[in-house]
């Protein structure tokens, strides 16, 4: 992506499927998740179901998609407020460092501000150093530690 290319962020559209799916497959590969077309299809169905909690923004440059962000709202009982949780943020490898991730975060920040949300929150892998440079420049790292409990394990 050249420096004169403009990054535009918008809600995903049904006509975006092929490019969105390509980006989402790359996202899954980045995190070493097994290829699984049923997951790609399921997440696409969620995004396009107005009753489902998952939403998506895509970033475009020129005539191609170069990034995605999947997000959902969540209740925060401790503060009596609603936040936005960023589940997935991905930019195509050849556009990293060119402002795509920042543009997606900016759009989420604007959405949260417009809705009166109390926070935009996400997690990332500790070793995702390139993304963490962006995150450290745009947000505050928290003191909270994340745990995963396997259903039925207790």
From TrEMBL:
<protein>
    <submittedName>
        <fullName>GNAT family N-acetyltransferase</fullName>
    </submittedName>
</protein>
<dbReference type="InterPro" id="IPR051016">
    <property type="entry name" value="Diverse_Substrate_AcTransf"/>
</dbReference>
<dbReference type="InterPro" id="IPR016181">
    <property type="entry name" value="Acyl_CoA_acyltransferase"/>
</dbReference>
<feature type="domain" description="N-acetyltransferase">
    <location>
        <begin position="7"/>
        <end position="154"/>
    </location>
</feature>
<dbReference type="InterPro" id="IPR000182">
    <property type="entry name" value="GNAT_dom"/>
</dbReference>
<dbReference type="Pfam" id="PF00583">
    <property type="entry name" value="Acetyltransf_1"/>
</dbReference>
<keyword id="KW-0808">Transferase</keyword>
<keyword id="KW-0012">Acyltransferase</keyword>
<dbReference type="GO" id="GO:0008080">
    <property type="term" value="F:N-acetyltransferase activity"/>
</dbReference>
